[in-house]
Amino acid sequence: MPGGVFAIALGTPWLVLLGLLLALERVIPARRQRGDWLNNGWAWLLAFGAGVVVTPAAGGAATLIVNRLGGGWIRLPDSGVGLALGVLAYLVAMDFGEYLFHRAQHLIPAMWAMHSLHHSDPGVNVTTTSRHFWLEAAIKSVTIWLAVGLLFKASPKIVVLYGLATFYNLVLHANLRVGFGRFSFVLNSPQYHRLHHGSDPKYANCNFAALLSVWDVLFGAYRPPAAGEFPHTGLEDRPPPKGLWQCFAWPLASGRSEAGGQPAPAALGSVS
């Protein structure tokens, strides 16, 4: 699939969903808050530039490139009922990789120094989705995305469908009163993920899931939200960045870099 077609196939619905969620946040927000829109925009711009200049492959593109070079142990079916099974297998593998990567971001000080930019937003909203340090995509492309590319030989059709599924991350960061109650152990939700961003130390090291919250259940990080629980977000030990330069140099400009953002780092399988 040509790169331009790939970008349009994913970019257009992403913008539509972003606009819809922005509108909903204004009408029915979970909390009345002031989002850090400008710094979210700077972080997105830096990450976009890094994706073009620094990272030769990102996300599903890493899988396609590895496959083109002969990688991919298991060929996933991409037609009929097999397509649904192929997408499911690819989604589960990628989501598990995202989960492990996220746990590492909170466990390893150097990775937390970068990831804490995402957690520094005092008013989490849909634009926080893209608030990531510009180097993180490059690290993912040579770790979890490379690993999935070596495991599965996936067609562009499967990669695009998975890419569309990841747009759910926009929903997860939306400032909306949406939760799944007793079923929160199955699928992530804005309320469930907001606890992960909670500024109070009691929310440390919980709810790391990207799409499937069952990983938190399996690895001991599951914290179901109580009815009406939508906490304040941000970091207690440092203020958010002040402009483009601090977003670019966040690990150096932000001060502290302890793992997890709280006093004790979380090992896989533990939760405080």
Question: Count the strands?
Answer: 2
**N-to-C series of helices and strands:** HHHEHHHHEHHHHHH
Quick one: overall form?
globular
Low-confidence stretches: 1-6, 52-57, 261-267
Average pLDDT over all residues: 84
Total count of helical runs of at least 4 residues: 13
Structural class: mainly alpha
Please describe what this structure looks like:
The protein has 13 helices and 2 strands; from the N terminus they run αααβααααβαααααα. The model is unreliable at 1-6, 52-57 and 261-267 (pLDDT under 50). By secondary structure, the chain is mainly alpha-helical. The longest helix is centred in the middle third of the chain and has 28 residues, at 80-107. It is globular and about 45 Å long.
Structure in a nutshell:
It contains 13 helices and two strands; from the N terminus they run αααβααααβαααααα.
Task: Identify the notable features of this structure and list them briefly.
globular; 1% strand; two-stranded parallel sheet; 272 residues; mainly alpha; 13 helices
Write the layout of secondary structure elements.
Elements: H1 3-27, H2 37-53, H3 60-68, E1 74-75, H4 80-107, H5 109-119, H6 136-141, H7 144-151, E2 152-153, H8 156-165, H9 168-173, H10 190-196, H11 214-218, H12 244-248, H13 250-253
Parallel strand pairs: 1-2
Helix pairs in contact: 3-7, 3-8, 4-5, 4-7, 4-8
